[in-house]
Amino acid sequence: MQQGLGGCEVTFEVCCKIIARLVTKLSHRLQDHQFVFSVPRLLVCSRKLSILTQSKLGITMDAEGTSSAELFVAETPPGAVPVSRNQQKRLIKEEHRRLSKLRKKEESKKRKREEKSVAEPQDDDDDVVDNHTPALSEEGKVVYPPHDAAAKKERKQKEAEEFAAKCASNFSVILDCAWEDKHNESTMKSLTQQIMFCYGINRKHECPAAMYMTGVGPQVTTNLNKSNFSNWQGVTITSEEYIAHPHFSLEPQPAQNSDGSTNNIKQLVYLTSDAEETLETLDPRCAYIIGGIVDRNRHKFATFNKANAQNVRVAKLPIKENFALAATHILTVNHVYNILLNYAKYQDWVQAIKEVMPSRKGPVEKGGAEKEGEEDAGADNVDVAADADYKE
To answer: Does residue 32 sit in the same domain as residue 178?
Structure first.
């Protein structure tokens, strides 16, 4: 080795190796303490430091033609693929984003733990212990006492009874699933999703209804088994037709029986856009049938003809009387279901329909003058009755 400039080269190389070993040890220790260590950033910074040192000391290459910066980068773990400066910058940005997400996640967990601790009721009497209040573990997880399972079961039972009472006080909704011969694999999948939407709407709504699924065949059963639909609350599932169900009748039924008890038998009403009758209100003593067909308007009059053959009353929702649509009038099963529940809540068709109708259809509420002149040619060209025979 040469002295002077050569001696500076040897000193710098040794320093780079020492720094690399120290960085490796520090990285392991930080990782043991669950800290994140950004090696790519250190490589970039160290390379910049090496280049800066080279320029100040006048060092360019050693006897073998390798720069000191390259010597430092060569100290990376064996088998590592060298990366360019742009790749190193990209890795640094990704590391910063990951660290930011981890920090935000930890802050969110900490904030939630603090909110839960504040929300817990504080008993002034230290001798009284609330055994039913869940506690927080050191990891921040909610831990229920062993004997709290009974209280939890009792609470769920009470909620189920309250939900059933709400459904009993409202009208019923029947999803007629006896149309498997009209579906292919794609439309059957769409129908399955719409049925699941209906169940979710019914469970969360302020005015839920007793939900019936009739004419359920093997295809619907196979698709819905993934959602464990046999355990759905407030839903009656049967493979029989609705006319064979003991809770339904073709004729109007009185509110009470002769002995004064409540009459739970409800009149069947099939909702179809081909009907002449327009519903003015919804009767709690009726069960409204939604045809479970997703046919893209290929089977017109299907539900209308079926209802007439069974002597079931047919009717349509007053959408055309209250709205003009700029797009197709086709509605999905879950749209019709939601409109029915909304009317039970608001007792107003305009509010019930407006809240559900997709904005892409451009619903425009009709005024009084438009309602009087709804039989004009423009209105006849747009049939917006809520028939679930059709798919959006």
So the answer is: no
Ramachandran bin of 129, using left for φ above 0, alpha for ψ from -120 to 50, beta for the remaining angles? beta
- Co-location of 237 and 317 in the same domain: yes
Query: Can you give the pLDDT at residue 71?
Result: 40
Q: What's the half-sphere exposure (Cβ side, CA atoms, 13 Å) at 316?
A: 24
Q: Which two tokens stand for residue 125?
A: 């009497």
Whether residue 203 sits in one domain with residue 335: yes
How many angstroms separate the CA atoms of 130 and 181, rounded?
58
* CATH code where residue 310 lies: 3.40.1280.30
Residue 139 in domain: no
Could you give the CA distance from residue 344 to residue 314 in angstroms, rounded to a whole number?
Answer: 20
Is there a single domain that holds both residue 93 and residue 190? Answer: no
For residues 33 and 45, give the distance between their C-alpha atoms in angstroms, rounded to a whole number. Answer: 24
Alpha carbon distances (Å) from 37 to 14, 40, 44, 347: 24, 9, 14, 61
Q: Domain range spanning residue 13?
A: 5-77+84-98
- Which alpha helices (DSSP H) does 136-285 contain, by range? 148-168, 185-204, 218-224
Say what the pLDDT of residue 183 is: 87
Mean pLDDT by 10 residues, the chain (392 residues): 45 69 64 45 46 41 41 48 77 86 88 75 48 61 63 86 92 94 89 94 94 94 88 92 93 82 90 91 95 76 92 92 76 93 94 87 66 40 37 36
Closest CA to 242 of 261, 269, 214: 214
- Torsion angle of the four alpha carbons 86, 89, 93, 98, in this order, in degrees rounded to the nearest 10: 100
In a domain, 133, yes or no: no
Q: What is the pLDDT of residue 133?
A: 59
> What residue type is assigned to position 360 of the chain?
R
For residue 107, is it within any domain?
Answer: no
335 burial type by CB count under 10 A (0-12 exposed, 13-18 middle, 19+ buried): buried
Does 306 fall in a domain? yes
- Secondary structure (3-state) at 213: strand
Counting the structural domains of the chain, the total is 2
Instruction: Indicate the pTM of the whole model.
Output: 0.58
46: number of Cβ within 10 Å: 18
> Which pairing describes strands 248-249 and 266-271: parallel, antiparallel, or unpaired?
parallel
